Amino acid sequence: MSRLPVPTLPAEVTVDVGPLSPEDVVAVARHGAPVRLSDAALEAVAATRRIIDGLAGDSEPHYGISTGFGALATTSIPPEKRAQLQRSLVRSHAAGSGPEVEREVVRATMLLRLSTLATGRTGVRVETAQAYAALLNAGITPVVREHGSLGCSGDLAPLAHCALAVMGEGQVRDASGELLAAGDALAAAGITPVELAEKEGLALINGTDGMLGMLVLALHDLGTLLTTADVAAAMSVEGQLGTDDVFAADLQALRPHPGQAASAANLRAVMSGSAIRESHRTEACTRVQDAYSLRCSPQVHGSARDTCDHARLVAGRELSAAVDNPVVTLDGRVESNGNFHGAPVAHVLDFLAVVTADVASIAERRTDRFLDVARSHGLPPFLADDPGTDSGLMIAQYTQAAVVSELKRLAAPASVDSIPSSAMQEDHVSMGWGAARKLRRSVDGLARVLAVEVLTAARALDLRAPLAPAPATAAVVALLRGAGVAGPGPDRHLSPEIEAVVDLVLDGHVRAAAEQQTGPLA
């Protein structure tokens, strides 16, 4: 799953909780930035809490305040049991199973729930919102299990595990990663557990925060990976004696997709100044067209970029939303709604899994061409030192192909796989949490596929000596060699080298190495 480092506490920048930017989410979730609630947010929370307090003893039914939940919404709860109703809700809904969810995902989930609380539309008390901020700032991370959310009414089980920790119950991990009872961790941090009041349990679990957090994190990572895919493609085109003429701006403008234009511009920049490219810019070169996997890289990478742009639009709308049911309106009404349905997020999560698989697929095809002596234009079979005795990078491509095959399976949409629940009250659900979980695996897989392409292309560029590669691609080769990934030679243990390049891809070093020569890439 994720290869990214554990967040470091504390970070230098404090994030004000209100409408959040994607950068805010990454800073808090991944890098441990502290948070604070503004005075305006605290006042908004207090104002709507006064409305809920006014309804606490009301004999009229108000969903989530004086009634049961889901299919039990018609069950009236007497005033003396309404606080217990909220505690029971959290305890019963904290029913997740399976492996622990990654720390950064749980932190993103808590931050986004806090952001909705800060809108003042949920009716929680100020001290409840402050408790979420306190847990985030102390680096206390509730143990959330992978399975349990249908993505409607939001991410109920994951959010319930978070709310349980705020109550001082369940298990958490502290800032060092040690597993503790929530009560002990809160006591050590000087945080008083929350005793939930009317409406609060429901407000803490009724949101799309888990799937949205994973969407924001995935988009952040894809921003690096898609640019890295362009760098890898440029290395492959160059190493296979392909042409960059097809990436000319005027040719790309004939089909005016912005992502395609940006990708082609990256390819031109990375291949600029290549002596390898110049070596076959002669009449002796009889090829008029490169294979699709080389020639059409901007079209595939560009479409993925445009899909990410659409997903960012959806994520931006969700980051400014108040997702709860019921909500407290500006004029003081407490109204039921369906905004907890995760369809908008689930759809783009699935879409991103599709394009991630396709970018990986074309990268694998570019890699395979290096290894086939019939298509590699003078390179040794499998880039082996002594073909036959040595297998070269033959099995590295097998590994790459295995990942691509998995990504194709992960591209099957989750959002169309609704299953009814809660005695048919919740009869159409989004499966957005499942879509987000598989997208995380897809993003990780794409990084591995690109790493094998970069590893292979770097060896091929070395084998083109004495011809020199472009300054940008040479910088990537030098990065690998400096990280202990050796060049051509007899067979050796490949797995550590592949993992080293995976790290260089994920942390942005491959992209940065190219950018040292080209300037910023899109």
Automatic annotation (TrEMBL):
<dbReference type="InterPro" id="IPR024083">
    <property type="entry name" value="Fumarase/histidase_N"/>
</dbReference>
<keyword id="KW-0456">Lyase</keyword>
<keyword id="KW-0369">Histidine metabolism</keyword>
<dbReference type="InterPro" id="IPR008948">
    <property type="entry name" value="L-Aspartase-like"/>
</dbReference>
<dbReference type="InterPro" id="IPR001106">
    <property type="entry name" value="Aromatic_Lyase"/>
</dbReference>
<comment type="similarity">
    <text>Belongs to the PAL/histidase family.</text>
</comment>
<dbReference type="InterPro" id="IPR005921">
    <property type="entry name" value="HutH"/>
</dbReference>
<dbReference type="InterPro" id="IPR022313">
    <property type="entry name" value="Phe/His_NH3-lyase_AS"/>
</dbReference>
<comment type="pathway">
    <text>Amino-acid degradation; L-histidine degradation into L-glutamate; N-formimidoyl-L-glutamate from L-histidine: step 1/3.</text>
</comment>
<dbReference type="Pfam" id="PF00221">
    <property type="entry name" value="Lyase_aromatic"/>
</dbReference>
<protein>
    <recommendedName>
        <fullName>Histidine ammonia-lyase</fullName>
        <ecNumber>4.3.1.3</ecNumber>
    </recommendedName>
</protein>
